[in-house]
Amino acid sequence: MKQQVLVLYLATSALDAPVVGWSSYDGTGRTHPTAGDGDEPPYETGVDALRDGWRLFQASQLIPPYPGSEYDTSFLKHEFFFEKLS
Amino acid sequence: MRTTLLTSVEVARFVAAGYLRLDAVVPDELNDQAVDVLEAGIPAVPYGTPLKEAFPEGSFARRLVEVPEVAGALRSLVGPDPTVDHHAVHVREPRGGEAQPLHADAIIDTRTDAFDVQLMYYPREVTADMGGTLVVPGSHLRRTNESDTGRYQNLRGQTRLTCPAGTVMLLHHGIWHGGRRNDSDQRRYMFKIRFNPTVPQVLLWDTADLADPAVAAELNRRFPWYEPATGRLEVHNRVLLWRAMTADPAFDIDYWTTRVNNRPGRVA
């Protein structure tokens, strides 16, 4: 059994929010995803990935901004890791 | 030397997106010489060398930065007499190489009232399969360090550069970008120069249209990969940069910045 990993970045902290970014990593070696290899996301929302059989195994925590950095922007906030085993 | 300064709307577009592209502005006469010049290499210069010393009169690089559209845009963004931080020739071999992880150059750079500009020059046409530079519009004000963003493979609204020969991009130092895999049979060339300003970056462009509502419209632009909440913060941060670049501490968009600083009767 090999793990395939899908990472979805969503527009809000809700799992049914629209996808704004995505990455995938393929432990089977059958595909070789890389930076900038597509302009359309594999799913429209996080829940759409669940419906297609992806299992959620990690979600971003909701962490208050550090005092003094409330207006800073940095990494994408709403990151969800999914897996399939094949 | 004739220059073509940017308008306020164009500079606002740069502040919002983090880059400007000038399509096919470099004449074929230079483009035709470029590959041989880049293959031979352009002599390195010490960090921070004044432009006129770094690139002697008549040299290829000097003629490139004196193309009127390029010279005008550079003057509008970094002012007269910038220094050359460094320059480099990037070549992507046919059917070779891996995509670079998404990154910002150098190290995390949190300046809010100054910025460097990176020029990227493409002497030949870049087609979709040649692995043109991946650029994420509106990523330049994010506080991230170099390739810590490497986990992100694709973001909605990203641009995978395709362009005609002689195209120049001017990018804010913080923009997320990466060279993509070249899946074609042709070598891809890009020449990059990083410029440091030597004067305050205040009202350096053609400001005749400073009050044009299109300026605020550009600064208020959201990009498809933004989480809506964070997109509001991006606009707030652009307001702060625009205030610095126009010496106008009252400038605002939709009251975002004014509202959260309103503390009647309080000092400091």
Written description of the protein model:
The complex is a heterodimer of chains A (86) and B (268). Chain A has one helix at 46-51, and strands at residues 3-10, 19-26, 55-59, 79-85. By secondary structure, chain A is mostly beta strands. Chain A has one domain. In chain A, β1 (3-10) and β2 form a beta hairpin. The model of chain A has no long low-confidence stretch (mean pLDDT 97). Chain B is 28% helix and 17% strand. Chain B folds into two domains: 8-196, Jelly Rolls, CATH 2.60.120.620; 209-259, no CATH class. In chain B, α1 (8-17) packs parallel to α6. Chain B has helices at 8-17, 28-40, 51-54, 60-65, 68-78, 213-219, 228-246, 256-259, and strands spanning 19-22, 49-50, 83-92, 117-122, 134-135, 154-155, 159-160, 167-172, 177-178, 188-196. In chain B, the strands form two sheets. Chain B has a six-stranded antiparallel sheet. Chain B is globular and about 65 Å long. The interface between A and B is medium-sized, with 27 and 35 residues.
Quick tags:
heterodimer; A: 86 residues; mainly beta; 4-stranded antiparallel beta sheet; 4 strands; 33% strand; B: alpha+beta; Jelly Rolls; 2 domains; 6-stranded antiparallel beta sheet; 8 helices; 10 strands; 28% helix; globular
